[in-house]
Amino acid sequence: MKNQITDLISAAKDEGINTLLSSDVFKEAVIELGKKIVEEQAANLIGGLLSAASPRVHGIILSYKQNRFERNMTRLVKELTRRIEDLEINYVSLSDDMRELYKTQFSEMLLDSVIDERQEEKIKWGVNGFVNMMTDESNENIMQIFFDTLTELTVLDIDTLKMHHIRSDLNIYELQKKYNIDYDRVRLVKEKLVRLGLLTRKNDEQRDKNIDEITEYLQKLEQDSKRTRPQGVKLPSSIKKISNNDSYNITRLGSGFLASIGEV
User: Fold this and answer.
1) Which has the closest alpha carbon to 110: 122, 134, 126?
2) How far apart are CA 50 and CA 22, in angstroms?
3) CA torsion sign, 73 to 77 to 83 to 87?
4) Are the C-beta atoms of residues 175 and 186 closer than 8 Å to each other?
5) Strand 199-201 relative to strand 248-250: parallel, antiparallel, unpaired?
6) What DSSP letter does each residue of 69-93 carry, written as one string?
7) 86: closest CA among 264, 262, 212, 241?
8) What sign has the CA pseudo-torsion 24, 16, 151, 100?
9) Model pLDDT for residues 171-194, shown as the tens digit of each residue
10) What is the reported pTM?
């Protein structure tokens, strides 16, 4: 078994990392990580994450932000520890160019999403996305969209999105009870998810279908009117009245997001 702590510190070249490691709580998290058998490449990746965090330590002045930063970084290390085997397998399978992106740009994206995060529970989702999307098919735009979306969502938003997944057992009554909110608040959350492209309104889908059906009907009607003996064209039975109540479906983007954070 390697001395993982030594590997991490040697990988983190910036002297500012000492500021971060001065926390007893954070030391405990790193020591826990040190108990794992980790390949050198994965150790360098995690060490690079810690090193990239150190300049951000110097930029944090207010004590409450320092405390939140410390708690979030502690949680980050614990979540990396939880996914260390998957991280190793995925990371060593990457091309050299993609490894460099994960050590630099993508690590910075993860850190930026963690440092000022007010809901600590979301950190596990950031780590899950970081690890699960670790393939040669990833790119800067995909990763940036993922972390931007995660940053904008709350735990309530993500639970609401999960409720619409086919495999979810969560219903709206349990959601309202869990968060002590009324239906109007849930509807606002759903509209936010629609704006982000994670949900779609069924009424909008039906309205689009109606428009397509009517357009096709009018085209057939015009063609029929030009015949010597018009046969008549029936109005499609698939055209339906739009409901007064909105209901929602999860989009492919929404399902993909849940898969990335490990919630399906």
Assistant:
1) 126
2) 13
3) positive
4) yes
5) antiparallel
6) HHHHHHHHHHHHHHTHHHHHHHHHT
7) 262
8) negative
9) 889 999 999 999 899 999 999 999
10) 0.74
For helices 63-82 and 122-132, angle between their N-to-C axes, nearest 10 degrees: 50
CB 45 within 8 A of CB 10: no
pLDDT, tens digit, 9 for 90 and up, residues 107-152:
989 988 988 899 999 999 999 999 999 999 999 999 999 999 999 9
Cα of first residue to Cα of last residue in the chain, in angstroms, is 34
- Measured distance CA(38)–CA(152) in Å, rounded: 33
Please give the Cα distance from 164 to 246 (Å, whole number).
Answer: 14
Which one-letter DSSP state was computed for residue 235?
P
Neighbour-count burial of 201, counting CB atoms closer than 10 A to its CB (0-12 exposed, 13-18 middle, 19+ buried): middle
* Sign, Cα dihedral of 67, 263, 144, 139: positive
* 37 residue type, one letter: I
From the CA atom positions of the chain, what is the Rg in Å?
25
